[in-house]
Specification:
The protein is about 65% helix and about 0% strand. With about 200 residues, the protein is mainly alpha-helical. Bound molecules: zinc ion.
């Protein structure tokens, strides 16, 4: 089922950007992450997360529609999770950690669909998709902490929480028998490549 969905996703992607939509859907529900993390990532991909811009578009009066993280640009989904200077820093940390060369797309679905390693298997890439979902979830969590609990932006914290979240899922599913959390932090690619 998984490989069918992934093949379908690649075919859809090859047919043009409008099909990126279908590719993103095929991936998101097979990605390796906790259901709550995938649900948040799905809501982000379909622009159904209540960002300030989204709420304003629905006619809700707000004092500000500025991004909660940078306080500069309008808080759209695309801005908050990809274009915001803080989001960019989180993705940079993540890519450096994973050792992936990646063109950071401005479109959320392109960003998600392209987040993979060409040499990795379908299953291993679904683990990467799970990491993508964890990053998105942790950006959203911190945004809400800042907004509702007077937190401050901490890029390192967002990234580290995503590392932990993805690790907990893998441990929960017993993916790694010989690797520890420290291995995951220091050499994630070896851990991912060990997944059969
Ligand atoms: Zn911002």
């Amino acid at each position: 089922m998984e490989s069918y969905s992934v093949n379908l996703a690649y075919k859809s992607l090859a047919q043009g950007t409008s099909d990126t939509y279908h590719a993103a859907f095929a991936y998101i529900w097979n990605a390796k992450a906790f259901p709550s993390v995938l649900t948040t990532a799905w809501r982000v991909l379909v622009n159904r997360i209540p960002t300030r811009e989204g709420l304003s578009r629905r006619g809700i009066q707000l004092n500000s529609i500025a991004c909660v993280l940078c306080q500069i640009k309008e808080e759209s989904c695309q801005h908050l999770f990809i274009e915001c200077l803080y989001a960019k820093q989180v993705w940079s940390l993540c890519l450096k950690w994973l050792g992936i060369l990646f063109v950071q797309h401005n479109d959320l679905k392109d960003h998600f669909v392209s987040f993979h390693i060409a040499q990795a298997s379908s299953k291993q890439n679904l683990v990467l998709k799970g990491v993508w979902a964890a990053i998105v979830r942790c950006i959203w969590d911190q945004r809400n902490t800042i907004l509702f609990k007077q937190g401050v932006v901490d890029v390192e914290e967002i990234f580290q929480m995503a590392q932990l979240k993805s690790w907990l899922w893998m441990k929960h599913r017993a993916y790694f028998h010989t690797y520890s959390f420290v291995d995951w932090l220091l050499n994630p690619s070896s851990c991912i490549v060990s997944i059969k």
